[in-house]
Amino acid sequence: MAIHKLLLLPGDGIGPEVMAEVDRVLAFFNKTGRAQFTTETALCGGCSIDKHGVPLTDEVLGKAKAADAIIFGSVGGPKWDKVKYEIRPEAGLLRLRKELDLFANLRPAICYPALAEASSLKRELVEGLDILILRELTGGTYFGEPKEIVTLEDGQKRAVDTTVYTTREIERIARVAFDLARKRGNKVHSAEKRNVMKTGVLWNQVVTALHAKEAKDVELHHILADACAMQLVRNPKQFDVIVCDNLFGDMLSDEAAMLAGSLGMLPSASLGAPDPKTGIPKALYEPIHGSAPDIAGQGVANPIAQISSFGMALRYSCNLPREADMIDKAIANTLAAGYRTGDIMQPNMRKVGTTEMGKAITTELERLAG
Ligand code: NAD
Asked: Are 140 and 245 in contact (CB under 8 A)?
């Protein structure tokens, strides 16, 4: 049996609290022999600044490069608000994404039936929702140069961000979209702003050409990014996979996240190019929520997004789809049994803390394993 080598980077705030529940789930798999993992835990973010003066040391970066997958918690908090911009906690995560060339960000928005009432949309619009937003993560407006604020002769300031995409960058993210769609509902919506942006024109052309060349079996729709934002709240179940650039993906994935009810529920994956030998990409898995300093240390954080992120690692890095399905089922069943952390609490449900939720999910895993 393959032994999967995981690097755990719990980070700051609630990161270590929710990561402890991933440890519990890992121990279940190791104990039952359904899968074998070795894990190492290291510092990234504010905790690394405190110890080493930087948010990510070269040593930890080396471990990240050698791991089969990185399970990331969350970084940051008011304690580090005043550190220099270059060494802020988030710079550790950005360096990991850049060094491992993690260009594809997968953000599922799943609405568990038991939580349909927690969404701000009507139950019938979101119940059973399962869509995947695929965001290009290493190009576009956040990285394009020039990126600057200059002072003009009359004392006014002028700020510039630049949106840049090349054929290769668009092709590789579109290819991931078509591959993922084949394993799901076989439908891709490509969202851009070709009506007002040159990058949108190129995006549309490249996706269309790649579809004709490699993915005729997948249903492809083009949609303007603003129309996509509107359709996400009007009729979200029409979508399967939505692929878009870095900036639009940032907005659309946050919007889609809220369809599912709570930040504490949603995982994400950031993938690089598949390894030519194994076909398995470099990858980092993390919840979409931050370090939640307002509730850190109280044992009340919802660990589901973190456990679900580990589930995505089983699917995309460890080739363990059945075990990933088991985790999803155990979470759904635990919610159906009425367990709720504070962020998803509903009337007549059983309010639990981080540890109790993690234990309930693991107990359900044991039951499912028979
Ligand atoms: P946040 O996601 O940490 O918190 C937003 C709200 O959601 C808070 O009220 C919080 O209590 C709640 N929440 C978040 N996760 C929860 C969970 N698992 N269970 C229950 N409630 C939960 O966002 P923020 O407050 O904007 O940011 C806090 C810090 O996290 C900042 O320093 C920010 O830079 C950082 N951050 C880091 C990442 C990351 O590491 N990838 C992502 C986002 C924010």
From this structure: yes
